[in-house]
Amino acid sequence: xxxxxxxxxxxxxxxxxxxxxxxxxxxxxxxxxxxxxxxxxxxxxxxxxxxxxxxxxxxxxxxxxxxxxxxxxxxxxxxxxxxxxxxxxxxxxxxxxxxxxxxxxxxxxxxxxxxxxxxxxxxxxxxxxxxxxxxxxxxxxxxxxxxxxxxxxxxxxxx
Length: 159
Hints:
By secondary structure, the chain is α/β, with parallel strands linked by helices. The protein contains five helices and five strands, in the order E-H-E-H-E-H-E-H-E-H. The chain has a single domain, classed as 3-Layer(aba) Sandwich (Alpha/beta knot). About 45% of the residues lie in helices and about 20% in strands. Strand 3 (about 70-80), helix 3 and strand 4 (about 100-105) form a beta-alpha-beta unit. Helix 1 runs parallel beside helix 5 and helix 3 crosses helix 5 (about 135-150). The two termini are about 25 Å apart. One of its GO terms (cellular component) is cytoplasm. It is found in: Cytoplasm. It catalyses: pseudouridine(1915) in 23S rRNA + S-adenosyl-L-methionine = N(3)-methylpseudouridine(1915) in 23S rRNA + S-adenosyl-L-homocysteine + H(+).
């Protein structure tokens, strides 16, 4: 399975980089995983709705430029579908079984994702109704993907 995480913005926090490197290493035997960063737009606190849409549009164009036609796209969205770790593992297993071996997870920027990215999404997934920093979501996502592979293989870890 080829998994790409497309994330808006540069990761700066050392502790997150270390955690992400650890999960990438753990995922090595299960899948080819890469992270593609796309530039974020400046998003000051008090933006108008038009400015927010403009930021989403520009970031969305950068995201979509990284998505191949034959890729199954999973966007991370607060209003997306919530799955248990077991159901998430079953979904990844189902995708692999039915020939969807190229998967891209999209983590938007601080103002969310554009309508065009939402339209391209094959599955909108939510990890919680809580809001997490998008940089931290990279590590949370990688941990859940790793957990899913362990569950699929019947290996200990997910308890």
